[in-house]
Specification:
about 110 residues, alpha/beta, Transcription Regulator spoIIAA, 5-stranded mixed sheet, 4 helices, 5 strands, about 45% helix, globular
Length: about 110
């Protein structure tokens, strides 16, 4: 699994570089959780620019990290998901709890309010 992590202030930006399935979910979960433990992250943004497929294990990773960041009084956002991935988010109900954006600055600004 290829994932790129970067930080902007207290926001962790997780750029997922390939499809999310049960093969990659465990690695992604561990990578994000270890970053949450060792740094001063308050918010997370999941960048789906490079993701074309996601199964239920990917949804589990997103929801689990959302719950973890909520415990820290933080927020989560979805960034640059294509229409197919957005449909998965809509059907799963994720968009009721995690907002989606097409602009990084807008996503970061939303976390300040």
């Amino acid at each position: 699994m290829d994932v790129k992590l970067s930080k902007k202030g207290t926001t962790l930006i997780i750029r997922i570089m390939e499809d999310m399935d049960h093969h990659s979910a465990q690695y992604l979960r561990q990578k994000i959780d270890s970053e949450l433990v060792k740094s001063t992250v308050k918010n997370i943004i999941f960048d789906f620019s490079c993701v074309n497929f996601m199964d239920s294990s990917g949804i589990g990773v997103i929801v689990g990290r959302y719950k973890n960041i909520q415990k820290l009084n933080g927020k989560a956002a979805i960034l640059n998901a294509n229409p197919k991935i957005m449909q998965i988010f809509e059907m799963s109900g994720i968009l009721k709890i995690i907002p989606a954006y097409n602009d990084l600055d807008a996503a970061i600004s939303s976390m300040c309010s």
